[in-house]
Amino acid sequence: MPRRLWAIVAVAFGVSLSVIDGAIANVALPTIGRELGISEADSIWIVNAYQLAIMVSLLSFSALGDVVGYRKIYLGGLALFTLASVGCACSYSFATLVLTRVLQGFGAAAVTSVNTTLIRNIYPRAQLGRGMGINATVVAVSAVAGPTLAAAILSVASWPWLFAVNIPVGVTAFVLSRRYLPQNPVLVRDHRFDWRDGVLNALTFGLLIASIEGFSHGLDPRLIAFGVAALLLIGFFFVRRQLREPYPILPFDLLRIPIFTVSVLTSICSFIAQMLALVALPFYLQHACGYDEVETGLLMTAWPAIIMVVAPVAGYLVERIHAGLLGGMGLTAMCAGLLLLAFLPDNPPQGEIIWRLMLCGAGFALFQSPNNSILIASAPPQRSGSASGMLATARLVGQTTGAALMALLFHLVPGNSTQTALLLSACFALAGAAVSFSRIRLPLPEGLARKRKR
Questions:
Q1: What is the CA radius of gyration of the chain?
Q2: Domain containing 159 — which CATH number?
Q3: Are residues 179 and 207 in the same domain?
Q4: How far is CA 195 from CA 192, 198, 202, 212, 248, in A?
Q5: Positive or negative: CA dihedral 132, 7, 57, 220
């Protein structure tokens, strides 16, 4: 148990760094743009470069973990992330900052691609839900801490310190990981990583995200059409190659497992719903309800704060209750909370908003830990890395799609975009609940099923 505790602390440090850095720069974009002499539109690349680097490399790192070992990928990702943070802190030009943010994104992709499979190695199979609950809690705390930490740093220091604070945490995480993470032998010796597949994977997902973003932001239709055509052509060759591979980067072998595929679909629906709501709510609370920026930020803390409480409990419950039932109940509760938010009365008091936000957050937490447990446990041990990568990819695809849908609604229904977004978010949560409930009739993975039979 002491070694397991330090190992989970090491994983928590790495995951928190990758999550916090996804949002910590957002608060400082106006300041960075002004000091580097760039436009507001160009400053967005400081955020987009990080997210895009994660998206194009995530599945490749997870597949590489199956080949060389998950511990090596995690340690390499931590080292790259920490060194890139040094580069970000020392950057005094826009080009250098974007380049080092790309390197940071690759490091974060390596960390997040294998973090859940490391939890599978740290915890006994029957207690996997507990580890997933802790991981969900760390992600929730990090999501809350990002903007708050950025504001605190900027109040006493300049923007390079936003990245400099990563350095001691990254070094600590690397030392703990090197000492306490369990060694994991490579189970498939005849498997080699195909770099051509890695390039095709990066192009496919890069074009996918670029097409979604371009469409939602009103880019020239000719450019969007060219991007979609390139996506279809490259994606066709990529998928055809992957279908022939015994250990594909895009894990079609795992997607043939019914409960794995259903869990991925449920995850995508849930993260579309969550991102739609989290992007729409600040506009809704400020424009429709009359709260200022500070009040809005404090109110929205209720959503991730309740996840910190419910996620560990859900991790224990999955040992006794079917994960499909827990996930369906959680997303149903989230759907109810979103509908209640969409039909708030005029000039609502803070209490009326907070309990609705807490219902959404509690429902999401009740879904997330069991869903992650069942998704990871359903994969064979030698494909744990690919399962972990697919879990993270489903989250990123859902979040990107949700944000793009919100941008699209701003164009389509400018007079009522936020309420429409909350209603659409509720529909995605309900769809995820229906898909989750369908897992009840499917056999559970070994370990989860054994624990429930006892």
A1: 21
A2: 1.20.1250.20
A3: no
A4: 9, 5, 11, 26, 12
A5: positive
